[in-house]
Design brief:
By secondary structure, this protein is α/β, with parallel strands linked by helices. It is built from ten helices and 14 strands. It has two domains: 214 residues, Ribonuclease Z/Hydroxyacylglutathione hydrolase-like (Metallo-beta-lactamase, Chain A, 4-Layer Sandwich), CATH 3.60.15.10; 91 residues, Orthogonal Bundle (Arc Repressor Mutant, subunit A).
């Protein structure tokens, strides 16, 4: 079972513990960093199994949860942050994340209400049938089942070093999440990437609402591509991801991901040759076998490629009854 085997020392002072999750992505990798302050990077979801395995994994390395001095979140998604409050209560650890993780970690009521309204309006614009809008409530309930209200003590900024671990630099790598950060150690060219770069699957550039309600939604696929290009320019020998195996030869993988983005954009363009379509209609054509099960993921993917085409001025948009129709 994930996490019950002896955790691996992945590089000097870096240990990986695999934590099971109830999500389709499978186990999540969390990391224990040795140094002046024992640091846990991500926590796993709020389940009894995950809590037991996290404790056992840390014990197998030679510590207890109470020894953790600080927790760093790579991003706010429940499979990475759900156990934050339990760890904090058990250890008294300080907690760190990007500022955009704060309302999700705190489960800020005003923001969470806005979050739901944002998706109802967005999905209406996309032409999602009314009977499918139930997915918004289901997504909220499922996500909230695996996390609990906690707090962030200090927000991390791009280019700064981690408190008490000066060898580690914070990189802001948004796209998969607005709060996504990665951690880079230059002396041995190691990157802890969270869900920014995963070996066997392309990270979904998930649509999320802006923190400032007066602003437009972020262009998440554009963000994701930019953050990938930044990492491609860096000297990285190995990447430790939030899911799956470690990565070497990161530039080759990043190039493949960027090329596949354009291939899907070309596919979307070809689907519009026979007339205008909504984002939902395009999603059913791009992902005919999975869109009903994974509507939020697939619709995010479609909207990301629509964003790319709009930036290139290759789409026309017309609105009818609040629904957006795209054509070449």
């Amino acid at each position: 079972m994930a996490g019950l085997v002896k955790p691996k020392e992945m590089a000097q002072g870096i240990y990986q513990i695999q934590i099971p999750t109830p999500f389709s992505v499978g186990p999540v990798n969390v990391y224990l960093l040795e140094g002046d302050h024992l640091t846990l990077v991500d926590t796993g979801p709020l389940t009894e199994e995950a809590w037991e395995i996290l404790n056992q994994g840390i014990r197998n390395i030679g510590y207890e949860v109470k020894d953790i001095r600080q927790v760093v979140l790579t991003h706010h998604h429940a499979d990475h942050s759900g156990l934050l409050e339990r760890v904090r209560q058990a250890s008294g650890a300080s907690t760190f994340a990007h500022f955009q993780a704060v309302p999700y970690v705190e489960l800020n009521d005003e923001f969470m209400d806005f979050h739901a309204r944002f998706f109802y309006e967005l999905y209406h614009q996309c032409g999602v049938p009314k009977e499918s809008l139930i997915i918004i409530d289901k997504f909220h309930r499922r996500t909230m089942s695996f996390t609990e209200r906690s707090r962030i003590d200090e927000c991390l900024k791009h280019g700064k070093t981690l408190p008490h671990l000066p060898d580690w630099q914070v990189l802001f790598t948004p796209g998969h999440s607005q709060s996504q950060i990665s951690l880079y150690r230059s002396n041995d060219r190691v990157l802890i990437a969270g869900d920014h770069i995963i070996k066997n699957i392309s990270s979904n550039a998930l649509i999320e609402p802006p923190l400032d309600q007066s602003r437009n939604r972020p262009l998440t696929l554009v963000q994701y591509r930019t953050a990938l290009e930044m990492c491609a320019d860096m000297e990285i020998d190995i990447i430790f991801s939030g899911h799956g195996e470690s990565i070497t030869n990161h530039r080759k993988l990043i190039l493949e991901r960027l090329q596949k983005n354009w291939m899907r954009t070309d596919t979307l363009r070809s689907l519009l040759k026979d007339g205008a379509k909504t984002a939902y209609e395009l999603t059913t054509l791009l992902f005919p076998h999975v869109y009903q099960k994974e509507l939020s993921l697939t619709l995010s993917e479609t909207l990301g490629h629509i964003d790319l085409l709009q930036i290139l001025n290759q789409l026309e948009v017309k609105q009818r009854n609040g629904v957006l129709y795209y054509s070449l």
